[in-house]
Fold this protein.
Amino acid sequence: EPEVTQTPSHQVTQMGQEVILRCVPISNHLYFYWYRQILGQKVEFLVSFYNNEISEKSEIFDDQFSVERPDGSNFTLKIRSTKLEDSAMYFCASRPGTSGTGELFFGEGSRLTVL
Amino acid sequence: AQKVTQAQTEISVVEKEDVTLDCVYETRDTTYYLFWYKQPPSGELVFLIRRNSFDEQNEISGRYSWNFQKSTSSFNFTITASQVVDSAVYFCALSEAYNFNKFYFGSGTKLNVKP
């Protein structure tokens, strides 16, 4: 069964460093997302991406964050200068086009630890 | 504004007991979708069910059942004859039917099933 894959599964970084989290969405999906879950808290929407541009972003998604689909398969989240409060599990998700049922298919998450 | 409330932060049961996880939502939309996701200790988000706002039929899938009541804005999830493998955090989520960009997650209910 096709699935969303994320790398790395866990990354430890120093405050102020740049981090890139990578995702390979399901191949025929058109909409891509990043969500964040701070330990023990709810899953929060960060950004959605469609047709090679951001379609919506939350207030969390400030100038430190960027997303990119550099080729036909990868979808990346970059945090330019990490802060302690960026420590969280980051989930990539994708869904088909308008014919889909709205279900988001999530990856297994990338845990980011900022020291 | 959309909001999902899971008032039960943690529930502990003994194996074979039935357990119900509560979910109450708020939305001004007349058309929306409701979801349940399971997050096992490994961290990934596993889709369990999707319900649209026009379909109030209850659904059963094996030991899982869902009770959607629009009148009380609730979408409760029952596990019958719980098993240790059901131990996880369960999230209820809401999305607008015409804007799947953003899922609104509840804060989750941690279910502990003891042998």
